[in-house]
Amino acid sequence: MTKILYLHGFASSADSTKALQLKKYIELHTKQTNILIPNIENNILKAVDQINLLMQTEKPTALIGSSLGGFYGTYFAEEYGVKFIGINPAVMPPAQMSQYLGENKNYSTGEKFIINQDQLDLLDAMAEKIKTIKPGSNYMVLLQSLDEVLDYRAALSFYRGAYLNVTYGGSHSFENFEDYFQKIRLFLNLH
């Protein structure tokens, strides 16, 4: 039985379009695969604790993460030695996230939350631990070159040695995600 833990991006939710599309595909096209799509805490300190607890209790065999969820996924894939698929993943988010210091609003739920320096410091410490990763055959990274939030070239460099799939065009939300489901299925050997 394959168990996938899907990690959505910053200020998103388990109801994100990509998560729901992938869940539907897995339910229709596999019999021995479960996908867990939790609402990841907006507070980064709580999110890291939440994901760590899910890794320990649910014992997923693969992680799929989008944007900040991709950063989390990379970190926990390294920690637990599981397969990882990144969808326009954030590579080193602390500097990129400083613009979110203060009050924010979750795009999906409307919930207001605070990002403070302690949370960014945790991301910085996590980034330091995975400065050099061992991607090899455990990593597949899907990128779109017109991502308006993250520079796909940073991910190309960071995930060197992984299976990289770059689509020229697209956006941060990763257009036509459903076109990649067969690649995901093959990479994770889903049944």
TrEMBL record:
Superkingdom in the source lineage: Bacteria
Pfam families the UniProt entry points to: UPF0227 (PF05728)
Alphabetical list of Gene3D superfamilies matching this protein: alpha/beta hydrolase (3.40.50.1820)
Protein name: Esterase
Organism: SAR86 cluster bacterium BACL1 MAG-120920-bin57
Lineage of the species this protein comes from: Bacteria, Pseudomonadati, Pseudomonadota, Gammaproteobacteria, SAR86 cluster
